[in-house]
Amino acid sequence: xxxxxxxxxxxxxxxxxxxxxxxxxxxxxIKRINKELANIRSKFKGDKALDGYSKKKYVCxxxxxxxxxxxxxxxxxxxxxxxxxxxYTEKQIGYLFISVLVNSNSELIRxxxxxxxxxxxxRNPTFMCLAxxxxxxxxxxxxxxxxxxxxxxxxxxxxxxxxxxQSAALCLxxxxxxxxxxxxxxxxxxxxxxxxxxxxxxxxxxxxxxxPHCLYPLDFNPSPPFLLQIVSSASTDxxxxxxxxxxxxxxxxxxxxxxxCYPPPEDGAVKGRLVECLETILNKAQEPPKSxxxxxxxxxxxILFEAISxxxxxxSEPNLLVRACNQxxxxxxxxxxxxxxxxxxSMCTLASSEFSHEAVKTHIETVINxxxxxxxxxxxxxxxxxxxxxxxxxxxxxxxxxxxxxLETADYSIREEMVLKVAILAEKYAVDxxxxxxxxxxxxxxxGDYVSEEVWYRxxxxxxxxxxxxxxAAKTVFEAxxxxxxxxxxxxxxxxxxxxxxxxxxGDPRSSPLVQFNLLHSKFHLCSVPTRALLLSAYIKFxxxxxxxxxxxxxxxxxxxxxxxxxxxxQQRAVxxxxxxxxxxxxxxxxxxxxxxxxxxxxxSILAKLKKKKGPGAVSVxxxxxxxxxxxxxxxxxxxxxSTPSPSADLLGLRSTAPASGATPSAGSLLVDxxxxxxxxxxxxxxxxDGFLRFVCKxxxxxxxxxxLQIGIKSEYRQNLGRMYLFYGNKTSVQFVSxxxxxxxxxxxxxxxxxxxxxxxxxAQVQQVINIECLTDFIDAPLLNIKFRxxxxxxxxxxxxxxxxxxxxxPTEMAAADFFQRWKQLxxxxxxxxxxxxxxxxxxxxVLKAKLLGLGTALLENVDPNPENYVCAGVIQTKAQxxxxxxxxxxxxxxxxxxxxxxxxxxxxxxxxxxxxxQVWAFAGPLNDFHILVLxxxxxxxxxxxVVIIVLLEHKSSPQSKIFHS
Amino acid sequence: MxxxxxxxxxxxRFILIQNRAGKTRLAKWYMQFDDDEKQxxxxxxxxxxxxxxxxxxxxxxxxxxxxxxxxxxxLYFCICVDVTDNNLAYLEGIHNxxxxxxxxxxxxxxxxxxxxxxxxxxxxxxxxxxxxxxxTSQTKVLKQLLMLQSLE
Lengths: 966, 152
Description:
Chain A is an alpha+beta fold. Chain A is built from 40 helices and 18 strands. The longest helix of chain B is centred in the middle third of the chain and has 18 residues, at about 85-105.
């Protein structure tokens, strides 16, 4: 086995490093470095040409100095010179220097790229790998431009060595991440899949798997036999790839991860084999370990956890889900902290599956114990997450009680989230609301600082809406306020509830009106201005509820500290309330100060807050200097000032609008302008489909643009599959935060969504890929929703994704006789549809042809006897069926206004509507005449055939008659 | 219609080897950071990792990512990955890497990494590339390193 002695090869370097290490002070180090820099500079500038060895040594010293944290502003050229050396060690140092000290000098880049090019074509595998590693490490756009075409060729070439293929595959991955537009799918993709299935070289497979599967062919589906072979192989089979008796653990994990990018296989046999694999993995977990080493169990469990992720991803095999849960249950008590942590984390997702929810619940005691006893806060956090996930009506009281008691000692970093969770569970599973009120008040008592407005607003809303709990709530807050030090949030809730419902407990002499008032007022001076404002409102409500307190309260209002308070809001309230209580009659007072009406029911604002916290938005960022200041979950946005209630909002300072997000699109954002410009064709409010229309006949371009953001798309379709690349470009110099996109498909459509990175740097572009499968015909396009924060303001954009049925057209060539025979067979009125429409631009033949081809059909030449007309044919490919379509467009140069609509059979309305839309999309723009679109769905030799006739009106003759008689 | 939306997962964001005092022995970046940001990351990682003891997990949440780390004598080997990545696979990825270093340098110690820093980069590139695991077979990696060692 190789062994290297210290600094062999370059004695001068070793001496220099020793010198640096022996420096007693920072100053001495800098002195030594400056001496060395001067020496190197003079060598580089000297008249004598340096030999390769010296050059290598000095470049390496410069690199060392740079890595110590000093600036290096020379030596790049010498490093580039080393690249053309034919000695490996010199070349290696040259490439290393360039990879670490990336330089943007264009002349230098040209030289570097030239050297890389030479090495790539050298057929020397060592040099090729060095060059590829350099590209992979730098990954600049210039390199992508220079080599994105070359690397796939190296990857699939038959004579490339395996180690070079490994590097080429990952190099391609890097270029793809940096410049996705430059790495294009080509004919080599099928050969990549071929490599993937070549089981003779596992390392190449391992390197190809991470390639984004958008680089695989559209119809690629990973097959399980290979996986089965690995997971069931004996540890001796794979020799080099067996790690502590576990065969190919990293490859297995990557394969299982890749499968999670796909839906469960529909082929029963394939699915059966896959289930067999997963069972094998679960079985192996039960076998006695082949080694006591932690490496053995870690490698084995790495595969197991990945398999469980896949089982959860499929969420369709109850047996596997329950087995997974039992396995994780064993880990919950394992002596390895890592395993306990991972089991809690993984079980959290199992809890949300209907098949395993009950199985997860059986571990409640263990999880509660973990919450109490784990030493690592991150493990306790996972336990809390799991308790939250497994909570339902049957165990809510126990879980909430445990969480509350944990809160007393919980780590500060997770308190706010815990508070939100308790509040949500208490509300969601409250059977009797007195328990709910108790829980929330306990929450305020234990962790008042972490109780956000959403939480205490919510308890008040619920008390107001449920009269069965009002008396209990009044009694409980009254008792809670007795505590000598009670949290300000408790005072707020207390003030509000007693102001509304104090009368319900006033019969008891221990809580007579005056006692209530004195209790509240004893807290007054310790409170902040908004709370005092709220209390003043409670006082005026008291005057109405309890006339006997009027004199006392008026006295308080009249005091200098109220009526001359320096805070305008407090002063105004004091003055107005005093006046109101003095001049208004009892009736007027009773009307003005009537009990608050019930709040409209809506989704809990707390839930929205938790979602926001858990989502990518959990990162708070300071925007002033445009620099990223990411924080861990739980940092940042607690108690945002923006949502502090304005004291002047309403009588009790409680706004009735949802306070959580402030996310209304009318938040004064620039986008409002965009929406208001959207044409009347928008199908749902706020959805921008301007850009949408332009994509009916094309696949690439800019879908959306405003001052902040540009969204470009590239898409490709084959049969019933499609893939769309979305490029989000930040046009500003400031980072977008909480960047979040979702795709929703109306009706029967489904979507699987993974989130983007939540941050988009100023000037940066991020990419997202959507895979599309057309299952059956559809009308509504999927909606893309984009949310992000720019300079603190939430931006919300909704766009229709340009996925239209015609994207799934497969062009069909046919001869004239065939065409018209089929055409005539579509003779029933319900088999056709037509539309006459005006085109707004010129009727240029080439433009028209391009449009029709863009529509996806085949443009049939020499078919129609009238050369002015265009006829097309295509088959729409959906998973459920194939629909043949014939289409005819007759431009009318004479421009006569005429509208004509054929009868539409109701059960084929889908198609008719669909083509109505296509007509608008496809032709309303560029043509400027009147046309008729005739749509004809019908039954034919394949499943169903649809004829589309797009006809130009020729004076008086009916387009239909013309067609059918031709 | 069935729609899947996914983003490119980049697995490894960076690899750091630090000693207990916080001196960096290797920093390999698989994402673009400017120099100030790198320095900040190095300091933050040191701060979160060194306070943990043997009873803690080998995983720690870090910004929007997580750090998988393992301590060998006075050195911390840290890999920063996506939160959804497989913890144990990367934990053993570290160990695999350390075993290769150990074999290559014959009982590796911190000083080997200092004096042969330029060779450590070669070892890393053999085993990790473009933020992915490139080669996991110790036999193959060592054979390749031995071959490179023999070149001049």
